[in-house]
Task: structure prediction
Amino acid sequence: MTQDTPVYSGKAKSLYPTGRAGELLVRFRDDITAFDGVKKDVLTRKGSYNAQVSARLFTLLEEHQIRTHFIRLIDECSMLVRELEMVPLEVIVRNIAAGSMVRNYPIEEGTPLDPPVIVIDYKDDARHDPMLNDDIILALKIVTAEELSLIKEIALKTNIVLSRFFAERGITLVDFKIEFGRDNGTMVIGDEISMDSMRLWDAGSGASLDKDVYRFDKGDVLEVYRQVTERSLDRGEKT
Ligand code: CDP
Result:
């Protein structure tokens, strides 16, 4: 059912038509990039690890009445999704200070953030995803005030569900980014939730289990992605 030409190709995923109105096929590629695409590589099986973890987490959210675009996995690196009218926002929820929070503000890495901090960036690579605030979001008419409060509510609920899921598997959810789109006017989670879009630390050792391993050459990124996949799919690895 997949045609050869993608309707859209991003840094790590490509979207294909399915022949059915309102549905798309997302293929998670083996490309990995960091720092706005300045650093890039191809890692065999990386796409399949991210697809499988995304599918597991989307299913988990749906079980908690959080709506996503996920329909089902088609093969180990492709998923069928509902087509959304995407909103150009990157909605980040932070439980622990790390990454840009530490680079940009006087706060030490590892500082717990309670309540969690929501940061919303404008999804625009050419502008390096500048941070927004509520007034700018409304001035740019990206979403309505009602949609914005719904987005924050869904993001916080998602944080509770994902934090518990990973804690049960010996992993701390430090922060994550999600994207939203409208499905017939309803705000739902789209894109992916994977090791590329979350910051995960091993609860025991504190070791990075996410794209930071690639960004900062902290070790064998493929092995780390494999481990998170095994632990997320409950295939027994706890360390
Ligand atoms: O990762 P970096 O320090 O550049 O940015 P951040 O603002 O600390 O990122 C917070 C979380 O959002 C991390 O888990 C990132 O992996 C994720 N993120 C993402 O998936 N895509 C982006 N364009 C920016 C952040």
About this structure: The chain has a mean pLDDT of 96. The radius of gyration is 17 Å.
